[in-house]
Amino acid sequence: MKKILSCILVLAFTASCISSSKKATIEDEVEKVALTDSIPTIKPTSVEIMPDISWEEFENADTAYIDVYSTLYWEGCSWYCGGKVDTIMASSYHNPENNNTYNAVNAHDFNHKTVWATNGSGIGEYIVFSFAGSCPRITSVAILNGHVNSEQSWRNNSRVKFLLLYYNDQPYKMLEFQDSRSLQFFDLDTLGNGPGHDGYPNWTLKFEIKEVYPGQKYEDCVIADFIFDGIDNH
Description:
This protein is 24% helix and 31% strand. It is of the alpha+beta class. The protein has a six-stranded mixed β-sheet, with no helix packed on it. The chain has a five-stranded antiparallel β-sheet with strand order 2-9-6-11-4, covered by helices on one side.
């Protein structure tokens, strides 16, 4: 009798767990649909594919002009002449390995070889950029998606598929990425206050990973760089 009662209790508990799991899955799907319905989804306005040659080969070439390297390492005038990121923080990052770090600051160092990598699958993880109240306004962002240093590294690690952008903690745009080893450009509205607003509070852009393209070998999700562009500098 005790054995029968134990079996009944185990079955009831299992059924309860399955029911809870199904409920959680349904709730996740409902949340995803709600976000899709209420938040505009935008795709890249342009894409620059990573070149086949290395940075060293590009740097030593006499006449080479390759978009990704030029965008990353060009020292001409840009939004950064007057604009800057005050602070960067991430919800998680992968532990250092073989003298390589994976902190949030790697995602804004204009170096395609260093990356921010999440601790785990990346779903729900985020990175936050903070700007001074009088910082020049931002109108677009370019994102180097994945571990782009090599084709194999890019395939081995997960990449972002959908990235939810928050402006001052409010959901703003859903960014949908191509699954390509590339720098992808997204047009935004004019965000921020602009010069002449000294004393205004800092404002933020938060990017939350909602879905990924799975890596062939590693679970962690990787973003190499964010590059901002905008107005008020010329």
